[in-house]
Design brief:
Helix content: 25-40%
Strand content: 15-25%
Number of domains: 2
CATH topology of the largest domain: Spore Coat Polysaccharide Biosynthesis Protein SpsA, Chain A
CATH superfamily of the largest domain: Spore Coat Polysaccharide Biosynthesis Protein SpsA, Chain A
Number of helices: 14
Order of helices and strands: HEEHEHHEHEEHEHEHEHEHEHHHEH
Structural class: alpha/beta
Radius of gyration: 24 Å
Largest sheet: 7 strands, mixed
CATH class of the largest domain: Alpha Beta
Shape: elongated
Number of strands: 12
Strand order of the largest sheet: 8-7-6-9-11-10-12
CATH architecture of the largest domain: Alpha-Beta Complex
């Protein structure tokens, strides 16, 4: 059986490995009670992830340390901090006095708020935070149950031994040259909206690319797309293809594979999100306000027939559930309009084996992937309109059951780790 000290460090190493995707440049800042001078990167070196694990407690000047790390970050870097919770100070000091643990000497005892405040002062923005490890002793089965399940429950999570914070450098706003945009439109039985989409979606960035992926329609959607693309003479770049498999997720992946833009956007062919609101998604991601922009239909009043009552209740439930699972505030996980950087999608593709090919919709594949990469996810409220052509391709009960299975799946792969 592992000692408490060995168990603690193995647990911490496993958790940090979970937070740092494979293939990324990682630098670990080291400091100990005996040597509180931190190891810093060489001048000019930058890293995807900088890890400060149980380091801030030994620092005389925490802000100075965080300030010095700015030179070793890029706009897409992440700072990962783990630290003993201040709530455990009396218990850990007692354990040291009784020689049940090694003495760590005098140190700073920090709350999550303290850590977040230091990060703000040094020009960082918190992406996510939480607690880990409720029971530091290694008792087979019991310890795993407590630390994997109970420790992640609301309220109880604030009692954990380890506080963790993931942060990024504060964004600088829209930079030149303007990033290009690829808009993917998965279209199945949507012949009546194709020309409107082409005409009404705005042209944004250095160029806007509009890619239709037709989904083996039973109406003349494919013929309409082909005609509209071939006859187009406007300022957008237009192309189209036919998906190889089934489901919106498969169509979106094909569109992403065809895309050449810096930013990838999904736009639903039913046009229930007004085209003139798409510019806000581009501005939110290009400015750095968020790194994954998620549309939310549940803020503004909806048009009368745009969403059935049962669907509305289900959207509320799944939004709250996945917010807890992902440690992200998400009001509407099922809105079809989502925007992310192409380079982040490449990382999601490379890491897809962690989750597997589980999502026929495509929404959760991207949300889970962005959360796993510690990207800043931001909800953007939209005005949700009624369909003007065709009928929905969503089956309330069959797809609802799939969503419930995704909740169970994500608990196992993300929350109860």
């Amino acid at each position: 059986m592992l000692s408490a000290r060995a168990y603690y460090h193995r647990y911490l190493d496993d958790f940090i490995s979970f937070l740092t995707p494979r293939g990324k440049q990682v630098f670990k800042v080291l400091a100990t009670p005996e040597n509180s001078t931190p190891t810093l990167p060489s001048k000019g070196d930058t890293f995807d992830y900088i890890v400060l694990s149980d380091v801030l407690g030994y620092m005389y000047d925490i802000q100075e340390l965080l300030d010095s790390l700015k030179a070793h970050t890029t706009p897409h870097s992440r700072i990962i901090i783990t630290q003993y919770s201040h709530l455990w100070e009396p218990l850990l000091k007692l354990a040291s006095a009784l020689h049940l643990r090694m003495s760590s000497g005098e140190q700073n005892w920090l709350s999550r708020h303290d850590i977040a405040n230091f990060l703000t002062l040094s020009g960082y923005e918190v992406v996510k935070s939480g607690g880990k490890m409720l029971f530091p002793l290694n008792i087979p089965l019991i310890t795993s149950l407590i630390n994997r399940v109970l420790a992640n429950l609301p309220l109880i999570n604030h009692l954990c031994l380890i506080n963790y914070v993931v942060a990024r450098p504060r964004p600088l706003g829209i930079q030149e040259p303007l990033p290009s945009l690829s808009i993917i439109v998965a279209a199945r039985n949507e012949a009546g909206t194709i020309q409107r989409i082409i005409d009404e979606l705005p042209t944004l960035g250095s160029f806007t690319e509009l890619i239709f992926v037709e989904g083996n329609s039973t109406d003349d959607t494919q013929a309409v797309i082909k005609h509209c693309v071939e006859s187009y003479q406007g300022d957008k770049r237009l192309s189209w293809g036919v998906q190889d498999g089934k489901g919106k997720g498969d169509a979106v992946r094909k569109g992403f594979a065809m895309a050449e833009g810096d930013i990838l956007m999904i736009y639903d062919a039913d046009m229930t999100v007004p085209p003139n609101e798409i510019a806000r998604f581009y501005e939110a991601i290009a400015s750095g306000t968020g790194e994954f922009i998620n549309g939310s239909r549940l803020v503004y009043p909806m048009e009368k027939e745009s969403m059935r009552t049962l669907n509305y209740i289900a959207n509320k439930f799944f939004g709250a559930t996945f917010s807890w699972i992902l440690d992200e505030r998400l009001k509407d996980t099922l809105c079809g309009t989502k925007v992310l950087w192409s380079k982040d999608y490449s990382d999601i593709e490379r890491g897809r084996s962690f989750f597997g090919d589980f999502d026929p919709f495509g929404d959760f594949d991207l949300l889970f992937g962005a959360a796993k990469l510690n990207r800043k996810i931001v909800d953007l409220p939209v005005h949700y309109k009624e369909r003007t052509y065709g009928s929905t391709n969503i089956s309330r009960f069959r797809h609802g059951w799939l969503l419930i299975k995704m909740v169970v799946f994500s608990l196992r792969k993300i929350k109860f780790t």
